[in-house]
Write a structure and sequence with these properties.
3 domains; about 260 residues; three-stranded antiparallel sheet; five-stranded antiparallel sheet; Alpha-Beta Plaits; Helix Hairpins; SH3 type barrels; alpha+beta
Length: about 260
């Protein structure tokens, strides 16, 4: 008798919940298939849009995981499983994790913004947090900068997204400013001719933007000449030293004397 009652109850339960379970299974299968197709489409779309390679796997994983979670919740609703306790548990875990990982999450969010907005890229020369160097890697949580004296500096991304960053190579070229002082007896036209000759022969001096040479100030014992010339941003320091050396040699060779020169 008890066995017969059990079978009757089981039969009734199957008739009552069976369609919902089958519908949930069908939705689960269709949803997983749809997520797989969508992930492939997103991957191809990101490739065409040239999304940063270090960001693409994360975004694809985040999108797929979020869709799977939503799919599981939808399937549980279709089957008839109560979500009250589950939602409260997820909420509590989320709050606790957020409080424990607040700094990490800030770095994480900042890393995403840097990779999307691209205020700087790998290979750029930047000044940030008192450090000047070349960006070697941009990670989700931090950025690696190699300074010119070969120090590796790891900067949390939250520091880079909330404070001033100077990208000194973003435009591709930088201006070199040189100021020279001459006595009043030295002809400025001759000075300008010599400087132009040096810059014309310097391969690392750019023709565009146009250079500028002029008298910066006039003083009782002489005048100062300002030289503004544009150089490639990469290799700027080497080019600066080379041009300054050539200017010094050309001025000395022409017989023009700067203050303090023998």
């Amino acid at each position: 008798m008890k066995v017969e009652q059990f079978y009757n109850k089981a039969y009734a339960w199957i008739l009552e919940t069976g369609p919902a379970v089958l519908a949930g299974i069908a939705v689960l299968i269709a949803g997983l298939w749809f997520i797989r197709i969508l992930s492939r489409w997103l991957s191809g779309h990101m490739l065409k849009r040239r999304i940063d390679p270090s960001l693409t796997p994360f975004l694809l994983s985040l999108a797929a995981t979020s869709l799977r979670v939503l799919l599981i919740i939808a399937v549980m609703q279709i089957i008839g499983i109560q979500m009250t306790i589950f939602a409260a548990l997820v909420g509590a875990i989320g709050v606790a994790a957020g409080l424990a990982l607040s700094g990490t999450l800030q770095n994480f969010t900042s890393g995403i913004l840097i990779l999307i907005l691209k205020p700087f890229q790998v290979g750029d020369n930047i000044v940030a947090q008192g450090q000047e160097g070349t960006v070697e890697a941009i990670r989700i949580f931090y950025t690696v900068v190699k300074t010119y004296d070969n120090r590796t500096v790891v900067i949390p991304n939250s520091k880079l997204s909330n404070e001033v960053i100077i990208n000194i190579s973003g435009s591709g070229y930088r201006r070199l400013d040189v100021e020279l002082k001459f006595s009043n007896g030295i002809d400025f036209a001759e000075v300008k001719r010599i400087i132009n000759s040096v810059l014309d022969d310097a391969q690392n001096a750019l023709k565009v933007p146009e250079r500028r040479i002029g008298i910066a100030s006039i003083e009782p014992d002489g005048y100062k000449v300002s030289v503004n010339v544009w150089l490639n941003a990469h290799g700027f320091v080497d080019s600066k030293m080379e041009i300054q050396e050539r200017l010094m040699e050309a001025l000395k060779g022409s017989g023009l004397k700067l203050p303090g020169m023998g």
